[in-house]
Amino acid sequence: MSTRSILLLGAGPLQLPAVRTARRLGLRVVVMDFNPRAPGLREADSAHIADIKDAAVALQIAREERVSAVLSVCTDYAVRTVARVTSELGLPGLSEEAAERATDKYRMREAFLRGGAPSPKAIRVASQDELAEAAARLGWPVIVKPTDGVGSKGVTKATDPAGLELAWRRGQAVCRSGVLVCEEFVEGPEVSVEGLTWNGETHLVAITDKITSGPPYFVETGHTEVSQLPAADQESILDAARRGVKALGIDFAASHTEIKLGAHGACIMEIGARLGGDRITSDLVPMATGVDIFEGAIRVALGETPDVAPTRGAGAAIRYFLPEPGTVVKIEGAAESRNVEGVVDWVLDVEEGGDVPPLENSLTRVGHVLAAGATPTEAAGRAERARSLLKITTRR
Ligand SMILES: Nc1ncnc2c1ncn2[C@@H]1O[C@H](COP(=O)(O)OP(=O)(O)O)[C@@H](O)[C@H]1O
Ligand SMILES: [Mg+2]
Fold this sequence. Notes:
- By secondary structure, the protein is of the alpha+beta class.
- The chain folds into four domains: 5-91, Rossmann fold (3-Layer(aba) Sandwich); 100-104 and 187-313, ATP-grasp fold, B domain (D-amino Acid Aminotransferase, Chain A, domain 1, 2-Layer Sandwich), CATH 3.30.470.20; 121-184, ATP-grasp fold, A domain (Dna Ligase, domain 1, 2-Layer Sandwich), CATH 3.30.1490; 316-395, D-amino Acid Aminotransferase, Chain A, domain 1 (2-Layer Sandwich), CATH 3.30.470.20.
- Helices cover 34% and strands 29% of the residues.
- It is built from 13 helices and 19 strands.
- The strands form four sheets. An eight-stranded antiparallel beta sheet has the order 13-12-9-10-11-14-18-16.
- Residues 258, 270 line the site of magnesium ion.
């Protein structure tokens, strides 16, 4: 049998593990990324420099390279492209309608409402007047966000009319469509659920506990694998995720469902029709459960049945470094931090003299530490100890 080819959209650091996994599975790997320095380009069998949002180019490449599967991992940018190409070529993948619902935060809310999946009340707003009216109807506080955002960019909690002004400006600054969503604010612990769906059947692999920077901008600052929430809460989270995936019509794809456990139970923040980023699917899930979801997603894209049964019960955690914004004057304790028992990866992207931006979205985080443990609590303790040993002094 001749070697099968897979087209992977995106070849950045988040997608590199998918390139390696596909090669390990004996596939010929074709990649596409607009950045000529993307690390996955060098490791692929065939590399194309092109925008992963450009479905026409992706389709042409998929045809020329005669691929048997098309996949994008850990980014929302290529979800519609994957759906377009797989639909056109008759390959396993998401329908274009499902891809649209999964990449438009208002259409997603409508689908959840129709499908009986728990989700906050939301109103689409195209002007500041509409936003003021929506907030008055929903009641304070509210969350304002772009319909097409990622990485918490332009997501703001507003507690009064004055707060809406800033929320509108932040949302508009990153929104391509100009349309924002105003929604009920849900208070409570946050988790994500990683899933794989094939033949319309959804397998939920793991629940991850999250730490965010909280109001007003909600940037993710840590993840612990697997969730330590009580079993009854986990049941309600899994039920919500399953309903949400179904409501969006995800039948052949991975899913990353973000849920808050509010006063009325599990409530879906959003669902990405793709694997989770932030090292969750590449590292935390395999470290804690033994499940290789990258391999699973590749097998689903090939039309095969993946193996998602857990083979271990350990723990893993990531914590992002959180220095005060400003110019870095001194970095101390890096060696001690790296050497904490259980630390498996340690990344710092700023140096002395460099700048720490205000923590406003995922891209403004400056580094992280990843730790393993026999239990989630042990892993989290190790990652937190490593983080506390690193002292980054900044000056405004
Ligand atoms: N309705 C809401 N109630 C409470 N918190 C919310 C709400 N919507 C979003 N958030 C918080 O903001 C974060 C980012 O919002 P999200 O819709 O996931 O946008 P993004 O696609 O940018 O990640 C969520 O993970 C959550 O912490
Ligand atoms: Mg999100």
